[in-house]
Amino acid sequence: MALEFLPIPLSWVVLIVLPVLFYIHSLFVLLSLSLLLALRRRFLTSVLSCLILWGLLLVDVWLDLNRRRRRQLHHHLRSLPILQPGLALTTGTTTYCVRPLSMFKKMGVAGPKPYPVIGNMMEFKNGLWDIELQMSRVKEFGGAYGVFGGMRPAYVVTDREFLREIFIKQFHNFADRSASTTALEVRPMCRALTDLRGDVWKIVRTTISPSFTGGKLKLMTDILNRCADQLVDNIGTSTRDGAACDIKELSSAFTMDAIAAVAFGTDINTQETPDHPFVVNAKKAFGMDLKNPLLWVYLILPKITKPIMESLQVSLMPRDCVNFFSGVLSQLMQQRQAGGEGRVDMMQLMMDAHTMRDEEEGEGGEAGGRTRGRKQALSRDDVLANGIQFILAGYETTASTLSFTMYNLATHPDVLDKVIREVDDVMKDRDTVDYEACKKLEYMEMCIMENLRIYPAAPRLARVATADTKIQWLTVPKGMLMDIPVLPIHYDPERYPEPDKFIPESLPIHYNPERYPEPDKFIPERFSKEERQKRDPCDWLPFGAGPRNCIGMRLAMMEAKIALAKILRSYRIALAPDMEVPVQLSKYTAFVKPEHGIRITVEPRNSGGD
């Protein structure tokens, strides 16, 4: 259609249509470059071809204008110097988006073919828990290959020797979980332990670590037993008259109460009030998944979105959730400072370090507070960020571990019988599951570990090279992301025979039949002491490995043991008739989650006996 039929001024056409044309041109450029690169043409040839396409596009538009309007448009274009800068900008953008994609090819590193802008992000179109795809990639490209997460390159590593170098032998070169060029500096959460780097991470880790010693864990058992008793009561109430309950929901309330009590010395009783603000905000914080557009934009174009998000102080976690937990923890800090409580929990250890920082600053200012003494001084943001992170991590991951372990026990009655017999034997002279009882529940521990092999809390781990280094034949430049998918390791038949079976005695990445024969099977015997001694420490990674493993691992295991022992002392569990088997996982969540919950029924036991 000629422009003379358009009911708008020609100047509007110039201002509106030209930017649209440049956008279309960008798509033409990216498309043609992708096709030409696929045909292994030279980069300059690709650029010239794109310029030709742009010229043809302009000619097509030009011919569509009638003669009179064409003269007017020519007059506007002469007075509007937009064509050449726009063309240069588009070509530059195209070069920026396409040229890095040949990086791994030049380095001689195999990997799936990336696409402009999105890289290999389409690998996640079926979610983060696509075991078949991840296993096929390892089989096709080996234990170390290259991918692009948007525009950012990364090595995907599952090889045992490479993992040992990253986690242990060369830990000093891979101590960080995120790079300074991509990590969001949005307070207070940028001060959380998982996001800290270098010496700052060491300072905070050293300060918090005493919260998880054996002596501190012993002091927590009474609190955890009280929370577990409430969980048992809730299960009984929810399953009255043979009804089924969602054990994932009940477990989440239990873990929230437990973490608030043992880490912060506060009773919130979410098990009695399911709609408690703690639970509501925690669920909202975990509600973000791969369907979130902001996450995709951030992952694809971190160098562009990072400064914008930081200037606006926008993080990937909902701001109202951060504000809620920050307010609660700030109030708790004020109460303790005013009351002079003598608790010895994680909150108090961080507060003591915060007070020490204030005293040191009084002597030597901000810099002095950061460098003098034991180097354990924490800021207020340090206390808040790590308090929030500990609440959220202890809430979701432990609840998933507990509920999925019960799912596996319910689907393997023979294993369940063994666990019940062990619980009865350990608890015959005890009313509470104390620290010593937890250590004696060895077969239960095998079951929990085997469950974490099959259903690890998180599907991927990450480390970043802090210096140029080399691992065998692989050159690793500074800033390179090392992406470690846990599922192909845990389902490796070499590590775990029959990896799809639940075998508690085996527990030795997690679905790799070379590491775990029959990796899809639940076989607790994989994790007997003898079997564990045979396996590499990097074959089981639900808590990571090396100096930067999960700081709360021992607490999480003890919490799950106490809850399971209390439940199985009172009930025999079974899957509800309407429960799907195998359980369907939420595809796009960053943490393992049942799509429709885990529904169980229970049969009361008589004083610990069947």
Automatic annotation (TrEMBL):
Enzyme Commission number(s) of this protein: 1.14.14.1
PROSITE patterns in UniProt: CYTOCHROME_P450
Cofactor(s) this protein requires: heme
Enzyme class of the recorded protein, top EC level: oxidoreductase
Annotated GO MF terms: heme binding; iron ion binding; oxidoreductase activity, acting on paired donors, with incorporation or reduction of molecular oxygen, reduced flavin or flavoprotein as one donor, and incorporation of one atom of oxygen
Entry binding sites for heme: C550
Record's keyword terms, sorted: Heme, Iron, Membrane, Metal-binding, Monooxygenase, Oxidoreductase, Transmembrane, Transmembrane helix
Parts of the chain that traverse the membrane: 12-37, 43-63
InterPro entries assigned to the protein according to its UniProt record, in alphabetical order: Cyt_P450, Cyt_P450_CS, Cyt_P450_E_grp-I, Cyt_P450_sf, Cytochrome_P450_3A
Region spans: Disordered: 357-376
Similarity annotation: Belongs to the cytochrome P450 family.
Physiological role: Cytochromes P450 are a group of heme-thiolate monooxygenases. They oxidize a variety of structurally unrelated compounds, including steroids, fatty acids, and xenobiotics.
Protein's UniProt name: unspecific monooxygenase
